[in-house]
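Archive maintenance. Older records in this collection stored only the sequence; we are now back-filling the structure field for every entry so that each record is complete. The fields below show one back-filled record exactly as it appears after the update. Entries are processed alphabetically, and DGC domain protein is next in the queue.

ARCHIVE ENTRY
Title: DGC domain protein
Organism field: uncultured spirochete
Length field: 145
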Amino acid sequence: MAENSGTNNVEFRRLQGCSTDTENMDIIFACDGAASVGQVGNHVAIDLTNAGVGARMCCTAAVGAGSDAHVNIGKRARRVIAINGCANRCVSKIMEQRGVKVAHEYVIATMGVSKIPTLDFNEADVERISKKIAEDLGYDIKAKN
Ligand code: SF4
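Back-filled structure field:
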């Protein structure tokens, strides 16, 4: 559902509260790394969140910084989905360090996307990987997108 943001009357879609309803949701943490693979992963997380299938992004950096609220969102989640850009697996390592159990881990660089130093990405890669993850996790995104 869209609501006025109060900023220039632009309508923003409001997300389900991740701190209030976390037990009923899969929580997605993506690295948003400053490379092709990080950007693809971030946009996959956005697409899965916007599909409205019971999965929602949460702030990976806040977990890394030790924010109790965000760590607890991860700990109470129905399932935690970690989307890493590359083999460094920064998201998964952050979760391990903060005691958040990862149910499903993905590494975009092993899914047909080369890690190159660019913030550009191919939308077709985002769509393909979003569909693959949705199939793995039982999300019906076809009806939503
Ligand atoms: S997992 Fe790779 S792309 Fe993502 S933040 Fe770490 S080094 Fe960057």
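Update note: The chain has one domain: 22-134. Residues 31, 33, 35, 37-38, 84-86, 88-90 surround iron/sulfur cluster (CB under 6 Å).
Entry marked complete.
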